[in-house]
Write a structure and sequence with these properties.
The complex is a heterodimer of chains A (348) and B (335). Chain A is mainly α. Helices cover 73% and strands 5% of the residues of chain A. In chain A, helix 8 (193-211) crosses helix 9 (213-223). Chain B has two domains: 42-147 and 290-304, Rossmann fold (3-Layer(aba) Sandwich), CATH 3.40.50.2300; 150-288 and 319-332, 3-Layer(aba) Sandwich (Rossmann fold). Helices cover 47% and strands 18% of the residues of chain B. Chain B has eleven helices and twelve strands. In chain B, strands 2-1-3-4-5-11 form a six-stranded parallel β-sheet, sandwiched between helices. In chain B, strands 7-6-8-9-10-12 form a six-stranded mixed β-sheet, with helices on both faces. The longest helix of chain B has 38 residues, at 2-39. The chains are: A mainly alpha (348), B alpha/beta (335). Chains A and B meet through helix 2, helix 3, strand 1, helix 11 and helix 13 of A and helix 1, strand 2, helix 3 and helix 4 of B.
Chain lengths: 348, 335
């Protein structure tokens, strides 16, 4: 066992991998800080410097953070999962339907959400890793299936009025600081429980990737599947587990998303998978696999949110500029990544 | 190669930094001016619009932009949510932190607004809902609403169908629905379904969403026409879907509108829609007035003056028959 671990470390050339990952994360984090400080300076008189503005980024994106981190795991193995947006819609819809139409408790709806995520993960993971089908096609099918099932359950827009659920959704956790608004009333800063859950999950995934054998085997599989196989890693199982985790996290993230919007609706979370992928890439995850970290992904999501906030605060620019700026950032990061990859190839 | 790439990257980085550095002072100037405006007594209004999916929506946005100008004493912060509810929720949170004086929301759907509207209420910012209605647990989460009575619009169309199609043995209706869950879809669908229930000879042979867009409307109509061409009426829940449906009908070698094979009913009555009505391709077009800017401004004036406006304000609507419409009516339509 010890020997295997040792071989694993040398084969992945741990030092180098870490330095690539760290470098990409550093770029992302500094970009976020520069962007946010620029916003604070430019829009200081429009509330951008308030702590609540930053907390809102976390509140509005709690679900996306969890979903994107799950996707990062899959992308580290060199795969992709584009079903997460549909899973989110399906989770929101089943939660709304079970609580409002079937009258189940809010706790049951959490279990259903987790089960849906898990089911998607297991089926897709099996098809990708054991039957060797292209992950894009498998998860594309998953995406259609999820959206279709959502519409089958209900075409109506269902509001969740369940008292327990609403008390979770409206449960503000006040922080010991705040700001005074223009009429002189003190407004304490607040977050929702969703933010705490999302951050805990990020920390757990970081820990798992860094400290567990399974976490490191994901990097090994994504870095070079052949050598991972040759050193006796169970490549298929690792890959499968990545999809299972991604599915499960999509289930959790979907439920957090649902707590934010409080409704089930066919059109919900459309294109969320693309937001998750772009956040992951901006956060330094290589599409070719082997490199990536949830911390980077977290900042990728925050960057996406900040661009949106900046453009909304500006007030006259079309909000489609969010997409244009995002695409420019994506280009920048892809170029950066290809530089790193070509450097790695030369080193080899 | 490696050096070249590194150089390219550095150059791009420097350029972007320089660009940021240059634009920053300009931005802060213009915003200082805008910020100073609030001292001059400008009322800041944050408007979260659903998107720009139809001509009606574009006219609605334009009306708000034309009304809330600095010349009129307002500063408008406009956000287009690109058809996503989570974008709208994020935008409302942004408005709260910007401490706008009023938040105006044209909601994408009826549900899911409780949490964020509670935040606005806690911050003491009045919320005005326009166009579609919302469904919240507590009514005091929004200040007032202005919009159309969509059910009544549906009823107006059904009434006309009752008169026009009287004496026919069987009426086969294709129903192109709007975005599922929106008030316009719900109201107009209820109107038609009530009509179909009241008339035993009416049959809705197909009911599908065209999502209020021309492309989707055409696509859906094409697929329905492949299944059956025995259609008497196509009931389109907005003008854009009607254009798509007419294109599909004509592509199938049939004629739409007055004296044609299929009667076309449409809603919104935009300029383009009324032009089609004048061209006799749409038989009946029920108006849904998008010019909400002045109406919202009136509500804000009332609130500013310390009055309490009516909670629900319905807009008066007209309907246009292809047989009686004139060019003057079409020309008078600015949107």
């Amino acid at each position: 066992m010890k020997l295997l671990n040792k071989r694993l470390n040398t084969a992945v050339s741990k030092q180098k991998m870490v330095s690539d990952t760290t470098f990409l994360i550093l770029v992302t984090v500094s970009l976020f800080i520069v962007m946010y400080i620029a916003g604070m300076i430019i829009f200081h008189d429009q509330g951008f410097a308030k702590p609540q503005m930053f907390l809102n980024l976390l509140i509005s994106n709690a679900g996306l953070i969890v979903i994107a981190c799950g996707l990062t795991l899959v992308m580290i193995t060199g795969g992709i999962d584009i079903s997460v947006g549909s899973v989110t819609a399906l989770v929101c819809m089943t939660s709304a339907y079970s609580m409002e139409v079937l009258g189940t408790s809010a706790y049951t709806s959490i279990l259903i959400a987790l089960a849906i995520g898990l089911a998607f993960g297991v089926v897709q993971g099996y098809l990708v890793s054991y039957l060797n089908i292209q992950p894009f096609i498998v998860t594309l099918a998953g995406m259609f299936f999820g959206r279709g099932m959502t519409a089958v359950i209900s075409k109506e827009m269902l509001t969740i009025k369940n008292a327990t659920f609403r008390s979770w959704a409206d449960f503000k956790i006040y922080l010991p600081f705040g700001t005074v608004n223009k009429s002189g009333i003190y407004q304490p800063a607040y977050i929702y429980p969703t933010v705490i859950i999302a951050l805990i999950i990020v920390v757990l995934i970081v820990f798992m990737l860094k400290k567990t054998k399974f976490g490191r085997s994901l990097y090994a599989v994504g870095g070079n599947q052949q050598s991972a196989l040759m050193m006796g890693l169970n490549v298929k199982r690792s890959k499968m587990m990545a999809y299972v985790l991604s599915g499960l996290l999509a289930g959790i993230g979907g439920f957090l998303f649902c707590l934010n919007t409080g409704a089930g609706f066919v059109e919900q979370a459309r294109g969320l998978e693309m937001d998750a992928i772009s956040s992951s890439v901006i956060g330094g995850t290589l599409l070719s696999g082997g490199v990536g970290n949830p911390i980077g992904t977290l900042f990728g999501v925050l960057i996406k949110g900040t661009i949106g906030s900046l453009i909304t605060t500006q007030g006259t620019l079309s909000s489609w500029w969010v997409r244009i700026v995002l695409s420019a950032l994506l280009c920048f990061f892809i170029v950066l990544q290809s530089v790193i990859t070509s450097r790695k190839r030369q080193a080899e | 190669m490696k050096k070249f790439l590194t150089f390219l990257l550095l150059a791009a980085l420097t350029l972007s930094l320089v660009a940021c550095g240059q634009s920053a002072p300009n931005d802060s100037n213009s915003n200082a001016a805008a910020g100073g405006g609030s001292e001059k007594g400008l009322i800041v209004v944050g408007f979260s619009q659903v998107g720009a999916e139809s001509d009606w929506r574009t006219a609605n946005s334009q009306s708000m932009k034309d009304t809330f100008t600095e010349a009129n004493g307002y500063k408008l912060i406009f956000d287009d949510a690109q058809g996503k509810q989570d974008n709208q929720i994020t935008a409302i949170r942004n408005f709260i932190q910007q401490e706008v004086d009023y938040i105006v929301v044209a909601p994408i759907g009826e549900t899911g607004w409780d949490t964020v509207l509670q935040e606005a209420k806690d911050a003491g910012i009045p919320v005005i809902i326009v166009d579609r209605m919302i469904n919240v647990a507590k009514d005091d989460l929004f200040y007032c609403w202005v919009g159309s009575d969509f059910r009544k619009e549906g009823d107006i169309a059904v009434e006309w169908m009752n008169k026009e199609l009287a004496g026919k043995d069987a009426v086969k209706i294709v129903h192109l629905q709007g975005t599922i869950g929106s008030s316009a879809q719900i109201g107009r669908t209820e109107g038609l379904e009530a009509g179909a229930k009241a008339n035993s000879n009416w049959e809705i042979v197909a009911q599908q969403t065209g999502e209020f867009t021309q492309a989707k409307g055409q696509e859906v109509m094409e697929s329905i026409l492949k299944q059956t061409t025995e259609i008497d009426v196509v009931y389109c829940e907005n003008d854009n879907m009607a254009f798509g449906a007419i294109d599909a009908i004509e592509a199938a070698g049939m004629k739409a509108g007055v004296g044609g094979d299929i009667v076309v009913i449409s809603f919104d009555a935009t300029n383009a829609g009324l032009t089609m009505t004048l061209d006799q391709k749409i038989n009946y077009n029920v108006e849904c007035n998008p010019l909400h800017g002045p109406r919202v401004a009136k509500l804000i004036e009332q609130i500013e003056a310390g009055e309490t406006p009516e909670k629900l304000a319905y807009v008066e609507e007209e309907a246009f028959d292809a047989k009686t419409i004139t060019k003057e009516i079409v020309d008078a339509r600015s949107y």
